[in-house]
Write a structure and sequence with these properties.
Elements: E1 2-7, E2 12-17, E3 26-30, H1 41-44, E4 51-55, H2 71-85, E5 90-95, H3 98-108, E6 113-119, H4 131-146, H5 149-160, H6 164-177, H7 179-192, E7 205-210, H8 218-229, E8 232-236, H9 243-246, H10 248-268
Parallel strand pairs: 3-4, 3-5, 5-6, 6-7, 7-8
Antiparallel strand pairs: 1-2, 2-4
């Protein structure tokens, strides 16, 4: 993976991409809250005939410091990365809060998106959420601030992942982030995500959900999302909230199948209905 960056005016944002000689499509992968681009390490070798872009979302990883975060700005940063690479058509995947960034991108730039993969994410749109259910996110930073940071990192990693390798990977990304920047990211993202209406996708959508995901009401929201829209819901077995890392072999096969179907449909000139 080749490391690059863009200067956004709000901060420098880093991204990584491979350069396969022949590839089916481009896939941009966006990590969730308090993770970084390493969340997708187990996808890189398996998806070797796909041009892959990973990045550190603003306020995360190496994309710090960063001022004036919003998902609109994150989507604009993604567009700037694509413009820098000369990419005008791609598939995007977003894990957890990374899915919010992709949904806003899909609203702003629907003509660029060939497909969207939600990984243990939830839909934008306040009608999905009860006020009692968002109490936790509204006050999460206050609760998180009370804990010793290594204790917080361990609890968060154990909650997000089912298997020890996935837990350790997320734990290490949290340690790299540090407590002050963790709180800033949590505060910024949870304050912003409720500002957006539901996105009506103009491309195929696949919802992926770990069968042991126990973060908030994520399983409930995915069921509601699928039922309300008809989007396919794929359950990733033996996996938690970081399902792409917990059960990477299964997840990778799901992604390969989804992209193959997109490619086949485009070659035949077929329209796709969700």
């Amino acid at each position: 993976m080749i490391k690059k960056y863009i200067d956004t005016g709000r901060g420098r944002v880093y991204y990584w991409l491979n350069q396969p000689a022949v590839y089916k499509t481009t896939l941009m992968l966006t990590h969730g809250l308090t993770a970084d681009h390493s969340l997708f390490d187990l996808q890189l070798d398996a998806l070797n005939d796909i041009r892959i872009i990973t990045w550190d979302m603003p306020l995360h990883g190496e994309s710090r410091p960063y001022n004036d975060f919003s998902f609109i700005h994150a989507a604009q940063d993604m567009k700037q990365i694509l413009d820098q690479e000369g990419i005008d058509s791609l598939v995007m995947a977003g894990q957890s809060a990374g899915g919010y960034a992709v949904q806003v991108f899909a609203h702003l730039y629907p003509h660029l998106l060939k497909g969207f993969i939600a990984i243990d994410s939830t839909p934008l749109g306040s009608h999905y959420y009860k006020r009692s259910e968002t109490f936790w996110t509204d006050h999460y930073d206050a609760f998180a601030a009370l804990l010793p940071y290594r204790c917080y990192c361990r609890l968060s990693a154990n909650n997000a992942a089912l298997h020890e390798t996935a837990r350790e990977a997320f734990y290490e990304s949290l340690l790299r982030l540090g407590k002050a920047d963790m709180l800033k990211a949590v505060r910024s993202i949870y304050r912003d995500f409720k500002k957006y209406d539901e996105v009506k996708f103009q491309c195929p959508v696949l919802l992926c959900l770990g069968d042991h995901d126990q973060v908030g009401y994520v399983p409930k929201y995915n069921q509601m999302w699928s039922q309300a829209t008809g989007y396919q819901l794929c359950i990733i077995p033996d996996a938690g909230h970081n399902s792409n890392y917990d059960n990477a072999p299964y997840f990778n096969e799901v992604i390969i199948k989804f992209i193959n179907q997109l490619t086949a449909g485009q070659e035949k000139g077929e329209a796709y209905g969700n």
